[in-house]
Amino acid sequence: MRLGLKRFSINLFIKIALVIIGIFSASIIANSLLPLNYGYYSFLFSLVSIFSGTYNSIISSKVIKREIILKPKSIKTIINNVVIIKLSFYFIFSIPIYFILNLLVKNNLLTFILMFLIMNEFLSDFLEQVYFTIKKTLFLSIIRLILSTNFLLLILYFNNFEIITLIIIQSFSLFLFNIIIFIHFNLSFQNEKKEKVIYLVFLRDSLSFMWISLLGIASTYLPVIFLNFNFSSLATAFYSIASKILSPLGIISVFIMNYSFPFFMKIYSVDFKKFVKYIINTFTYIIFLGSISVPILSLLINYGITTFFDSSYIDSIIIFRFEIWFTLLLLIDLFIGMILNILGKYKILALFVTIDTLILLPLLFFVSFRGVYILSITKLLITFFFTFYHVIILLKLVSKINITKISIFMVFTLFFILTNLYFNNIFVLILAYIIYGIYFLFFYRKVIIKHDEDSFNNYHV
Fold this sequence. Notes:
Oligomer: single chain
Number of helices: 16
Largest sheet: none
Order of helices and strands: HHHHHHHHHHHHHHHH
């Protein structure tokens, strides 16, 4: 227990250090390029993320993890062959992707560099997933910290760089990371027992996870592409700055969820009633504590934007206020996804992602012609209603808690969010805090504490 807590604390500390370095690096790059060029730079990296994420989803990390657990003496063989499969897909589809990229960026040299960066990006993401699966995250985190520090020092030294120079530096950093990690991995598993592994099964079993991953990638990065083509690089820059500053919160959220998964899994396997109680309490605290923390955090990061970024980025603050609430909704959805994974409800999870993406992306495409402000508020409101029905369906799946009262609590939360977004008067905000706090105490006492544990459905996998 103490060893696990120590390992978690060290990894969390390194994650926070990486977050701080990432924010400093982003501010230096943004201030050097200025909004117009930074918008184009963000557009290029959205393309990289879309294609690298697509390649990385070809064989799901969940399927690989399952095979490693089933065949622990063939880890090296499995991973090396998966790398070969991923690289094979990369080279097979490299020609059409090269033409797509060249059509979008209209620069042969830049297209070649982006192709190299895509390969390094999806390999580094894959190797990180492998190291998390085999529980060797400390070594990985230390190497990532060293390379991130090195990248920060490089951009400090080359303070007047062009976009293409910056991308070359990042490509080289990722390439070096992949070489170090791959050598370390192969040296760690020298003597292995050969077991039969059917890789076509890997591809077949990864299809549903691949669909979910592709939809997630599309909803994350396509808004940047929409803004760049439908409005302006300037709007892309403001949207990207807000997303970049908030990305650490998303990374830490995923990190915490990954470490929470075994805890909830253990409770689920031992005591289902206790598991449901933990779900309801966690939802309630995430929504309430997140809602009262976001405005305070927003003020602190607003100060950070005005301090560390050039004054030409001041318009990104209003976008940031929408995006930080979106990050809270993302945290709730991550928790829902984790619970559905534990319950084995993969079809429901895939249905959620499919419905959400097929509604959200066309809406964001059309509103992107109106600018970044309209796009951000649309994304926030639509995502809130998506999260709302995700919560209701999950709670109905596992419990007979009063859904009407849960719905009222969610609607009350929406009004609190809108009050914080559109009222700057300090007295109005204090009043909103008081009313929301009183309502939460009433809700928690009348709905959560008095919830009859014997009313749980007889659901168990």
